[in-house]
Amino acid sequence: MKKNILIVPGDGIGQEVTEVGKKVLDKIAEKFGHEFTYDEALIGHVAIEATGNPLPDETLTKMKNSDAVLFGAVGHPKYDNDPSAKVRPEQGLLKMRKELGLYANLRPIKLFDELLDASSIKPEILKGADILFFRELTGDIYFGEKGRKDNGDSAYDVAAYSKFEVERIARKAFEAARTRGKKLCSVDKANVLETSRLWREVVQVVAKDYPDVEVEYQFVDAIAMLLIKDPKKFDVIVTANLFGDILTDEASQIAGSMGMLASASIGDGTGVYEPIHGSAHDITGKGVANPMASVLSAALLLDISFGLKEESNAVIAAVDAVLKAGFRTGDIADASTPKDKILGTAAIGEEILSRI
Ligand code: IPM
Ligand code: MN
Known about the structure:
Layout: E1 2-10, H1 13-32, E2 35-40, H2 45-51, H3 57-65, E3 68-73, H4 77-80, H5 89-99, E4 104-110, H6 123-126, E5 130-136, E6 146-149, E7 154-157, H7 163-178, E8 183-188, H8 194-207, E9 214-219, H9 220-229, E10 236-239, H10 241-251, E11 262-266, E12 271-275, H11 292-305, H12 309-324, H13 345-354
Parallel strand pairs: 1-2, 1-3, 3-12, 5-10, 8-9, 8-10
Antiparallel strand pairs: 4-5, 4-11, 6-7, 11-12
The site of manganese (II) ion (MN) has 2 residues, from helix 10.
């Protein structure tokens, strides 16, 4: 198979982990006889520094023309501590999502058995948990009108959804539920928010087309609690942009660490694959970041954008084998991990590559 992949490392540890993700794609091409070609592009803080724009037109064009994008992270503490900054790295990410029509963000939460003790949740609660989140990615309070009033003394962000937007993500989630445990949980705050009442109304209608899928509705505050209390109860979860952002960070603890969680953003055109962890400037440049989320994002890319299931599974199996061999990065090590088994980004990357 001939494919052209755009590598967009972005900021912070995005640079370090994406390098490993790309090597994994290369190794897969070599082993399975594919021809992957690569190009690189800038986004986020590095793009602002180079061009003044967090998503240069050149990057967007390259994205649209590629078969898939392997993405790192965006963000820089400089902006976090300066709320008045008008140009921000995250604008690049949001514009990319909108321009590429990436309305469905898939975040699989699956615990590798070897990491049962890496989470702060009790192993017996976690064992067997396997959840697939569908986070709506191009609507909600993220994209509504925002601004200041009263001479800047008050601010607003509008949350808005159309039936069309809810229906297309709901259908994607129902389809996925069909191929898994046949259970879908739709999360909203319909007891308070009008957008949530529309959300629930639409999901109820769509549900009629999927009588084989068992549907449950939860309020976001309740599921925030239930995810920790009994994560095994859930199969597919579908929710709005902001709720999905928050719940998937929480749910990363079910998978041991944020450093393990991959995501796929799909929609109308090119798919984008990225770790859910951010740029992590506290550990940037130290060579200690866990590259597994990027590697597992590469696995999602192979599966979803290219339909290469066997290749994708080979990547996941290699990560599993590295964990079974006892290797860890700092974020997933615990008191029982021998010092010589705690590896940096590049070294654990090599362990993964040698097992593909
Ligand atoms: C994510 C991130 C982004 C989001 C930030 C960086 C804008 O947290 O992909 O989850 O909020 O969507
Ligand atoms: Mn997030």
